[in-house]
Amino acid sequence: MGKGTGNPVGDSVTDAAADGDVARAAQPDAMRAVRLWSGGWLTATALSAAALSIAWPDHLWPMLPALLAVAVPAAAGLLPGFLDTEQRRGLMLVLWGVMGALASGLTGGVAGPLAVWCLAPMAAASAYGGGRRLAEGAALSFIAATVTALAGLSGVAAAPLAGPPAFWAGLLALATTGLGLGAGLILVERRRVRREARRDDDVERLRAVLDEQPWMILSLFPHGRVRALHGNAPEGVAADAVALGGLAAAAQPGPDRAAIADALRLAASEGWAEVGFAPAGAMDRWASVAIRRVEENLLLAVMRDATAGRARETALDQARQDAEALAAGKSRFLANMSHELRTPLNAIMGFSDIMRSRMFGPLPDKYSEYGEMIHESGQHLLDLINDVLDMSKIEAERYQLSIERFDAREAVSASLRLMRLQADGAGVKLRGVLPAEVLEVDADRRAIKQIVLNLVSNALKFTPKGGAVTVTAQGFDRDFELVVADTGVGISREDLDRLGRPYEQAGDNTRRQMGTGLGLSLVRSFAELHDGEMIIESTLGEGTTVTVRLPVAVVQGRAAALPAGDNVIAFNPQR
Q1: pLDDT at residue 266 in the model
Q2: Angstrom distance (rounded) from CA 389 to CA 310
Q3: Do 69 and 110 touch, CB atoms closer than 8 A?
Q4: What span, in angstroms and rounded, lies between the C-alpha atoms of 347 and 368?
């Protein structure tokens, strides 16, 4: 069971909500009290006017007009709906001040018998609800008294009255004002008591809700001592122990308690922290607590049972490890099968070469055609298997670079010569732009060739007949840069985000059937093995540019500076 020891933050929020609810709920009762007060004031002045008319008919002026003046706001307060808005109640206080000053001025000012009616705005304000209205009423009363005093000093006010009528009128003014103030104060006190009672009820209901909710909510000092706690503790956590020993008492002694202490310090400094721990009373369970700083010396924490979530995380982590192990096993299997897969393919291609060359005599034309098809299919299959095996070795972290120093132009030129027939068959112009001077690199020669072959093959696949593919090799300080640009169909934004991952392909189904989707991923992997990078830039309908930048260039001497037009040559393998 949860227990509460008081929460200042919760109480302040509850106070604000309770005040609004009480004000709305108490408004009809308050209006009835205001009308009753106005009716009493009006009745007293009406009876006084009647008594004055009967007892002293010769003294009706200026007593009767003065009585009627203070009767006007009292009568207005009895009108239905007249005091329903704050603006109207403010105007009514002004009316009380004006009429009180008028009555006082008619009967001799501050020295007259009705001077006390200058306090009528304050009496009315106390009846209207007190608080801010009472301050407004006091200000208006002061203004009314000041105006009356100035009127007397300037001779505008009438001379002070004397005799029995003035005495009884003064007594009436004193009585009505005193009773008005007293009644108003009583109403204010009643409203305060009612508001506090309703607020206490709301606080109790809120505490009941907090105590019944499934998590434990705690109000803490920055060092972890509990100010208040509500709700239900997770299994294995003793609420009494936490209330006495602080938040750290919820966890098993040792690293978990130290983790909670670190979380408290982090929340106090950074504003928020969350930590998981094994409950003190159940080592096979798991709980978590989120801590947030709400004031300089006040933290709020929510503690919940996280056993199910931890079990899901453990299962997901185990599934991830199993998937990684399965993928690694697949990669190791394919890498180990390199010799077994390549050997029969090499035999097939060797025998098909014997048939194509007619080594043992002539063959019928049909058989010769079949031998050519067998050789082409075997070469295509060998290329696909090589890509798969290379990627498997890379994924299994068994691919070893054979670093040597060589002229990168030779490797690029050799690859372009191999792609010449494919470019001629596609009707695409293949052009190489290589530096005139030696471009030495420390890299894997086969990987450089494979990068060029894969990029050019990809470019030819997406470049229509009549287009062009340009291969540029150049060096910048320690960087060897290879750029393959085509004038093909380009790559959409959706496909561009996927390219470079294994087995991902772009284009329509016809183009996707022309490869395995490993070309660009192998290029990226070879680049990363050399601590380099691959960058793809493409515009749909205009073409694609792939840049491979490797930090493998050998820094040459200073004698390499030639004009830009002389240090590059155009290489066209179609010649």
Answers
A1: 92
A2: 39
A3: no
A4: 18
What single-letter amino acid sits at 566? D
pLDDT attached to residue 455: 92
| The predicted structure's pLDDT at residue 204 | 80
With CA atoms as reference, report the closest residue to 456 among 408, 427, 419, 403: 419
C-alpha to C-alpha distance for 416 and 572, rounded to whole angstroms: 9
In three-state secondary structure terms, 229 is strand
Strand partners for 305 = 287
DSSP state of 517: S
For 356-399, what is each residue's pLDDT tens digit?
Answer: 777 777 877 777 777 777 876 777 677 667 777 777 667 666 67
Given its phi and psi angles, is residue 507 left (phi above 0), alpha (psi -120 to 50 degrees) or beta?
left
The tokens of 571 are what?
A: 């290489």
How many other C-beta atoms can be found within 10 angstroms of the C-beta atom of residue 47? Answer: 12
Residue 294 φ then ψ, to 5°: -110, -25
The one-letter amino acid code at 344 reads: P
| Beta-bridge partners for 407 | 440
Residue 555: DSSP 8-state: P
Domains of the chain with CATH codes: 8-208 (no CATH), 216-305 (3.30.450.20), 310-395 (1.10.287.130), 403-571 (3.30.565.10)
CA trace torsion 453, 459, 460, 461 (10° rounding): 110
Q: What are phi and psi of 475, to 5 degrees?
A: -125, 140
Residues 250 and 288: beta-carbon distance below 8 Å: no
Please, which residues have CB within 8 angstroms of residue 132's CB and are 6 or more apart in sequence? none
Helix extents (H) in 213-281: 239-245, 255-270
Whether the upstream peptide bond of residue 62 has omega within 30° of 0, thus cis, is: yes
Q: For the chain, list residues with pLDDT below 50.
A: 1-26, 503, 509-515, 557-575
- Name the phi and psi angles at 40, rounded to 5: -65, -45
Amino acid present at 474: Q
Closest CA relative to residue 346, chosen from 334, 357, 354 = 354
Q: For strand 468-476 and strand 429-435, is the pairing parallel, antiparallel, or unpaired? A: parallel
Give the single-character DSSP code of 397: T
Calpha distance 433→431 (Å, rounded): 7
Distance CA 210, CA 220 (A): 16
Amino acid at 303: M
Q: How far is CA 572 from the centre of its chain?
A: 56
| Separation between Cα atoms, residue 180 and residue 431, nearest integer Å | 105
Residue 545: predicted pLDDT: 94
The contacts of residue 551 (CB under 8 Å, 6+ apart) are 478, 479, 480, 530, 531, 532
Q: Are 196 and 26 in contact (CB under 8 A)?
A: no
